[in-house]
Amino acid sequence: MIPEFYTKRPEWDGRIERIVELVGRVSALEEIVRDKLELRRTNRVWSVHSSTAIEGNRLSVAQVEDVAGGKPVVAPPRDVKEVENALAAYDALDSLNPWDVADFLRAHQVLMAGLVEQAGAFRSVDVDIVNAAGEVVHSGSRVEKVPRLISELLEYGGRSTDHPLVVSSATHFLIEHIHPFRDGNGRIGRLWQTLILSRWRPIFAWMPVETLIRQRQDDYYRALQASREPEIDAARFIDYMLDVVEESLVGYEARTRSTATNVGVNVGVNVGVRGPEAVLRLLRDEPTLSAAALAARLGRTPRTIERQLQALKAAGSISRLGSAKAGRWLVVEDGEA
Q: How far is CA 247 from the centre of its chain?
């Protein structure tokens, strides 16, 4: 049986309560959003982009969107394969049992098929984890112990009475600590936390938690390391993940609220009933915003925003002043043209 590996902190109760309230608000907002499926699809693209980018994948968000849409992408084949696999793994969430070892291995097979020889199998050698300077910062569990440790970890998770926010974070940490595979440990750890949380509240299947992890990537690795030293105590990593989940929900609530507020608005441009007006509102206040920045603000993909910008330009609603990098947008108000 796996021993206790984190010290519960009294402040977690209050933080969990705030997250539960946020989940309730976001879930209610999603119900009144007309294009909920598009919002969720966008979140999935951002999640896959972030989770693979953390591991060094070079595809842009727009390229990940193209892969998701089945369009050809000119990029290194391995990078494209990583994204294809990640999309397939997230699509398979509904079919996975978070406490089943066979499903854990099956998920790794989907994530790493065609990328490593031992996809879907525990590693057969001992491993060390090194930092950018080549220094060993952690050694994975002894190879002969890995199957037993993962089995005990998933058994712990399935019977734990702690809150799923805590259990999912603790499980994520110990997957990284055990390091059960030759490659893909970070990806499977983040996927598994998403899976556990989605069993608690389905909205987490579409929450772009990985996006904020990528933005705070150095903190992610520091929290992992701090939870190993001087002895194993995952409390620091749980603290970090509670912050990430709460911040992700705050951002998602803002984007969903913006979407809900603009339902029914139509500016006469055939690119959706609410997107163009939301773009125009932002550009009136911040004319230097890029397509990527607009996408992040509105919870859309860059490709979607680029299409809306092109349509708005064709309709004479906006024009571009200056270069692509240093210029700004001019919103043409009614009667100015």
A: 12
